[in-house]
Amino acid sequence: MNYWDYIRVEQLLALQGGIGDDESKLTNDEVVFITVHQVYELWFKLALREIVQARNVFHQNPVPDVQLSAAVRSFKRIVTIFEQAASHFKVVETLTTRDYLEFRDQLIPASGFQSAQVREVEVMLGLEDATRVPLGKQKSFLEALKGEGGKPSSALVRVQKRMSDRPTLKEAVYEWLTRTPIYGGSHSEQGTIDFLRAFLNAHKKDAEARMHLAMTAAGSVVDADEIRARYEREMAAAEAFLFAEDDPAADVETKRKRRDVRAAAVFLESYRELPRLAWAREVIDCLLELEQAIIIWRQRHARMVERVIGRRVGTGGSSGVDYLDETALRYRVFNDLWGVRALLLRAPILPPVEHEEAYRFRVEDKSP
Ligand code: HEM
Q: Are residues 156 and 28 in the same domain?
């Protein structure tokens, strides 16, 4: 075996021929355009492998604790991939608008919108269809993946296969979180409710103290009233969020699951120093980091696009930059975990943990 053959470099270097499959007829700009896209697709491939591997870890009951650190490593690898990938848009920005326009029109209706692997990443993470931003004429993102004249395509087959590969990472992780033992060695509804009540009490006291401070500093009675109303809304929203009453249309089972996921996320973050909670807390933190990295990737893509083609219609037929900015704003998978960030408390005012000994590696002997 030698390097050249093992890495298949010869095959790799023969893939940048463009529409006519003849690289010698292409400008350097077009070869840059094709190559950077190919590099991206390779990164997406690696990210997908890690998402599936992590999903498989959480799709076990019980999740073996010895596998949590490996899942965290998977998430960290995906974060690094997306962070590095975002910086590649700088290479695309070496294309001037005029240079890109030289070959752009022949690409219509092709677009990154048809990247099956990006859709696979979204699907495997658990992005809900209802969240998707419609692309004008396209009925669904699946339509755009079809071949000429609406024929099935390998891109479509890939995405459909992923869609039938359940659960998503979100479903698997959330299922695991709902089993978090809050206030004791095993999960119980009462333990969860007791914790939420104690936490909300502490939250209310803290918010009220801040509200009074802000009201005292207010410049007028009108301002003070507005501040009071804002804090009162925040306190009510915290309670509605934690008890999953923020979506009255949801059925009882959905609400219970949401409540348990949110309670687990607050509990794990609040008492993260306890050794048996530490890895689970790390998982949640990494999921947020991962989603943040993907959002930043989307935003970076949009800024590159704005620089290269301005706010014109995309080759895929979308409004272009506006469409991309909307996806960066709306495409969130782990909303519950983000939501928790708004109501976490400082360590000194947290209610004490009941059955703390259940979360330590070993029980300390406190006898004199
Ligand atoms: C000059 C370079 C580029 C331009 C002008 C550009 C422009 C656009 C535009 C306007 C869209 C919106 C859909 C449409 O109407 O076509 C889009 C979507 C997309 N592009 Fe690019 N792009 C460029 C390079 C890249 C690169 C290097 C990647 C890396 C894979 C990429 C990945 C994507 C993806 C995944 C989407 C779908 C986003 C979504 O629907 O959430 N693009 N691009």
A: yes
